[in-house]
Amino acid sequence: MSELETPPPAEGGRTHWNSRLGFILAAAGSAVGLGNIWKFPYITGENGGGLFVLIYLACIALVGLPIMIAEVFIGREAQRSPVGAFQALSKPRSPWAGIGWLGVLGAFVILSYYSVVAGWAMHYVWLSVTEGFSGKTPDEIGALFGSVAGSGSISTGWHVVFMGVTIAIVLGGIQKGIERGAKILMPALLGIMLLLFFYCMTLEGFGDAFRFVFSPHADKLTAGGALEALGHSFFTLSLGMGAMITYGSYLSKKADIVSTSITISILDTVVALLACMILFPIVFSVGGEPGEGPGLVFIALPVAFSQMAGGAFIGAAFFVLLVFAALSSSISLLEVASAYFIDERKWSRKKAVLFTGISILLLGIPSAWSQGNAENPDLPGASRLFGPSMKKLTEKVFGEGKGHDWLGLFDYLSSNWMLPIGGLGIALFVAWGVGGEARERGFKSGSKFASLYWGWVSLLRYIVPVAILAVILYKIGIFTPDAGK
Ligand code: TRP
To answer: Which bin fits 135, alpha (ψ -120 to 50), beta or left (φ > 0)?
Structure first.
């Protein structure tokens, strides 16, 4: 069927994905995003590579994948957005619905700052095309990032553009907006990543990068780093806030959830590792530092582009793709928030998407004004308020030197608290809260992995809760494995 025809009438009147591939691409599009290309390489760098990557892979397989299957199962079973799905599968007014609420809140929090970072990537497309990076020294390129992120007006401008595009796609609906967008964005993204990867294989830093990422040396890893790997496995797979519940709710009841979840997790992991194998060879070849932090993608790569033949073109292509990756994720975040108003409040899609989209846009403005340099005497008042002053204020809660600016705080609260708690709730709900019969049928229907059913349930019952509780106790300061380090 062509995508231009009217969608097939769905069970209960709900719109469904056009095809299995469409769902996989949309869900993989949600998973693959700034988390893979911007965040994963820099936290790998900060945690010394090797062992961190190994722990991350274990977290994906043993915690992330079981929760992804659980989320898609909840959505497909209930055919509703998260808040309603928990009620439909337990009872009305059940406390489990709180997990759904936390998810809606999470969508607002995450998308508000996610869009600001994506806006920087848009600005970098613009920079690559107009002035390019060639002729600039590494220091100048580093300073350039500071001046872009640090400028409240540049960051806000692109944040508005990025939210505008996200809103436009989600207004198009499931098949004509989200699915069609993913079918264009994902293949393009994979194609250009492979090209960049082949290019990076020719660089002298490739061997060092390979050893850095894949040989398990433990020097820099702390328990805190290991727990960060767990938190990131939620973020990168879009888990813990109902994004996969929402996408799963547009699956027909016959769809196989296990092999699709495995495919999505593998795609996400491959992209994250590819991103490292693109960034680190470049960083090592120009003698850079892997532990550079959040500026890695915006500084290390432009430095390389400034020295490469055809760098302007490759640079533009790379940042276009970073924008694409961010866009297919931001779509899913906006869809979670909107689906609540569409399914539970019976708003029209247009009203729901405009309302949530514009609210998130406004909520993101303080993030856009939070990255100014505290040392700059001419820093505008707003930048001072949401940056350095916010850091001071939060130091009172998190301790000396551990404060966050507005953007950092939203990232911290969502990745470290909301997603793990949401994930824990989802695991417990599927492990103990829903009927065993529905769960077993749901897992096994149409799946060639039916024999893994008990393995899945056991992971959800024991391993997942213990792992997440360890993270939470560590954050609160009750569990202190790094003491004395
Ligand atoms: N997974 C995306 C990334 O890696 C971010 C994202 C999209 C997300 N939707 C989400 C994170 C839902 C948590 C929950 O960039």
So the answer is: left
**Rounded to an integer, what is the distance from CA 191 to the centroid of its chain?**
20
Between CA 135 and CA 145 the distance in angstroms is 16
Could you identify the residue written with the tokens 């792992």? 467
Of residues 212, 195, 236, 267, the one with CA closest to residue 54:
212
pLDDT band at residue 6 under the 50/70/90 scheme:
very low
Rg (CA), the chain: 22
Q: Is the CB of 243 under 6 A from ligand 1?
A: yes
- 424 is a domain residue: yes
C-alpha dihedral over 373, 406, 106, 251, to 10 degrees? -20
Task: Judge whether 120 lies within some domain.
Answer: yes
Contact between 43 and 260 (Cβ < 8 Å): no
pLDDT single digits (tens) 228-286? 888 899 999 999 999 999 999 989 888 889 999 999 999 999 999 999 999 898 888 87
Q: What is the per-residue pLDDT for 5? A: 40
3-state secondary structure 253-291: CCCCHHHHHHHHHHHHHHHHHHHHHHHHHHHHHCCCCCC
Using CA atoms, how far residue 375 sits from 88, 113, 149, 315, 334, in Å, is: 54, 23, 15, 30, 36
Give 143-161 pLDDT, tens digit per residue. Answer: 899 889 999 999 999 999 9
Alpha-carbon distance of 289 to 420, in angstroms, equals 30
Structure tokens at 276: 């490292």
Q: What is the CATH number of the domain that holds 412?
A: 1.10.4160.10
Distance CA 151, CA 223 (A): 35
Name every residue whose Cβ is closer than 8 Å to that of residue 476 and which is 6 or more positions away in sequence.
Answer: none
Ligand 1 center–CA 33 separation, angstroms: 7
99: domain range?
A: 20-370+405-475
Closest ligand 1 atom to residue 326 Cα is 15
Calpha distance 80→76 (Å, rounded): 8
pTM for the model stands at 0.90
| Amino acid at position 418, single letter | M
Angle among Cα 226, 117, 392 to the nearest 5 degrees reads 70
Domain for residue 239, yes or no? yes
* Ligand 1 center from residue 332 Cα (angstroms): 8
Q: Which residue, by CA, sits nearest to atom 13 of ligand 1?
A: 238
Q: How many domains does the chain have?
A: 1
Evaluate whether residue 459 is within a structural domain.
yes
